[in-house]
Amino acid sequence: MSSSSYILRLNRLGLPVFLLLVLGACASSPPRNTANACDIFQERRGWYKDAARSERRWGIPIGVNLAFIYQESSFQARVKPARSRFLWIFPGPRPSSAYGYAQALDSTWAEYVQASGNKGASRADFGDAIDFIAWYNAGSVRQSRIDRNDARDLYFAYHEGNGGYQRGTHRSKEWLLSAAGRVQSNADRFTLQLDQCRRELDKNWLQRLLF
What we know:
This protein is an all-alpha fold. It has helices at about 5-10, 15-30, 35-45, 45-60, 60-75, 105-115, 125-145, 150-165, 175-200, 205-210; strands spanning about 85, 90. The protein has a two-stranded antiparallel ribbon with strand order 1-2. A hairpin with a 3-residue loop joins strand 1 and strand 2.
């Protein structure tokens, strides 16, 4: 759920404006422990539902998609690339239109909205962002024949586009090779962590209450 949707829902309760703003800021802030998938989803139960739904829809493991968000935005909802500097002082343009949890470009996001039918999607909404990543990765599995568990090569295709990946443009970029290695390592860790807690996360509120 996006912070704006969260605020609108709270607004129906008649809460003061200042309290709505505080609660909205908390809803869009990163989880306390972003290095542990179980901690993330236990803190944000709605995020787990979103992640599991995207896994079922597109067939890409949660751990892989979560590692992309960790790498791209560190779970910050509204992050943008840093601006360039003119004469080391004055802010210049941003290097791209990347925005949100997935750091999705305007053009690629528009493709996702059209292809998925998710007309109201927001890059600052975790559920929409992880669905975007899963959608893109499913396309890479199909177009570039990358294994769905191969977070490293999926990240190359995510960053370079499938055309660039197939041409091997990533091979000469040391920083990208290093980043993709971190994505694979984080995907492996998140997957192992989820193996320990998915049964608990899959319980509904009544099952958690009773057991």
